[in-house]
Amino acid sequence: MKYKRKITNDTYWIGADDRRLNLFENIFPLPYGVSYNSYVVIDEKTVLLDTADVSVREQFMENLDGTLEGRTIDYLIINHMEPDHAALIEELCELYPEMKLVGTAMTFTMMKQFFEIETGNRAVIVKEGDTLCTGKHTFSFIMAPMVHWPEVMVTYDNLTKILFSADAFGTFGALNGNLFSDDIDFEKELLNEARRYYANIVGKYGPQVQALLKKAVGLDIEMICPLHGPVWRKNIDYFINKYDLWSKYEPEEKGVVIAYASMYGHTASAVETLAVKLSENGISNIKIFDVSKTHMSYIISEIFRASTLVIASPTYNMGIYPPMEALIHDMKALNVQNRKVSIIENGSWAPAAAKGIKKILDEMANIDYIEPFITIKSSLKDDQIQNLDILTENIAKAVKL
Ligand code: FEO
Fold it and tell me: Rounded to two decimals, what is the model's pTM?
């Protein structure tokens, strides 16, 4: 980028967008791309905060070069060692032989695992509350283990009151020229991708995110600079509140997500009927997903958003239909809790999906079941409509509670 991207005073964004990558972590679809953010602070000593993914190396190096304007890098602060941010550390060590590396003890353990870097006289190992003065700026280091990896820390600049937040407060989606969230209609354009990023990448670690949020309360934060997505300088509480809800596994909204699997359309037909009945019972916020069609990460994100979930699955190999089983295992792995859930199963001769689904859900915290569960034998019959009506009423009551 032939342009210095100033954030404030002497602090610059030198990130880069990747619009070609199909799958983040080789799992999660990126229909709108992803940004890898990195930041430079020009002080008496220069500071680089995190590097970038190897895929954007060329752009990153150009941005870095253009921002340093011939100066060296004195300190590389490494908030996170995952390769989407750390891939270029070794190359920078070769380019800047005097550059110090600042990170946690675990950062340096991982660095030796990923690279062949002799960190001896470069390593500045920091722990909670340690500071680094670079002239006008003093950086404080705040440990944030498991947000999203164990070595993670965040860095607070006491001069500019910027929190460099690592993966926290990140968002999927490349930046479209607008660096700041207040230059984007965030709720319309990016909230869904922010939630999908949070739920799938950091969602498992709610307690650790809560611990970080508690530390953040004690800071006077004027700006949040995450490693992905836009920078926050206005309405910061809005996004912190979202993180608070998500990390407490509390729903953002009252509403129903229906996740179904269907081999020949009969289970699909049953959930379509249920959705219409729910609508006629005054439920307005209903979303239906076919787990064989919609990538799991979108459904997980919607489950983080909504208060109520209906799972509908055929029986398969005497158990749960495989894509549905994967979704429920992912819910458990990501610690989903505090949800109201109902189950519909289908089975032509020995229905067993509901039992399997409930067994996994029983291992999750604070799952309240909405009954009756419905068992379809091949297709929904007229004599089951009464049961479906009772379920509809009970789901409607649960949503309105
Ligand atoms: Fe964006 Fe956990 O790395």
Answer: 0.96
